[in-house]
Amino acid sequence: MKEILEILEKDARLTPEEISKTLKKSVGTVKKAIKKFEKDGVILKYKTIINRELVREETSSVRALIEVKIAPQRGYGFDHIAERIYRFQEVVSCYLLSGTYDLLLVVEGRDIHAVSSFVSERLATLDNVRGTVTHFLLKKYKEDGDILKRAERDKRIAISF
To answer: Fewest Cβ atoms closer than 10 Å to its Cβ: which of 77, 107, 142, 161?
Structure first.
């Protein structure tokens, strides 16, 4: 039933009926598989990818990628401190990395100052945090495999002879 997951990952709006036609399986089989995936936590939620560049909001936010160097705790490794960090509401995503830094965070705030305050007052002050590097997102071109830029129409007038 891996095919169902692949189809839903590309377009979560598809109905079990549409999926069953594509896979040539019964609607009941597809519905049962989806319910099981949801119950087992394989499917966590369904979401929409929004191109924020096209939605000008008064309450727009700023995103930053933050590399965090941490000292793992004896007996817990990286998991305990990572859990403390990802529980902050400003943290949108948290990843364990190989390389120079241990964690990569995606952090969101109402403006640059809010993100800076979060890093300096809450994140960097944690006992096991040894250093941070903050990169502010300026523009997104592609997210989760989807290109966010719409193809621009050629505004020139076609001339033929």
So the answer is: 161
33: Cβ–Cβ under 8 A, 6 or more apart, which residues?
A: 1, 4
Q: Is residue 84 part of a domain?
A: yes
How is 23-67 classified by DSSP, letter by letter?
HT--HHHHHHHHHHHHHTTSS--------GGG---TT--EEEEEE
Pair 74, 116 in one domain: yes
Specify the pTM. Answer: 0.73
The contacts found for 38-42 with CB under 8 angstroms, 24 or more apart, are 42/5
Of 55-69, 71-85, 116-130, the least confident: 55-69
Give residue 119's domain range: 61-139
pLDDT in tens, 94-118: 999 999 999 999 999 999 999 999 9
Other C-beta atoms lying within 10 Å of the C-beta of residue 118 = 22
pLDDT number for residue 56: 67
- Total domains present in the chain: 2
Contact by Cβ (8 Å): 136, 95: no
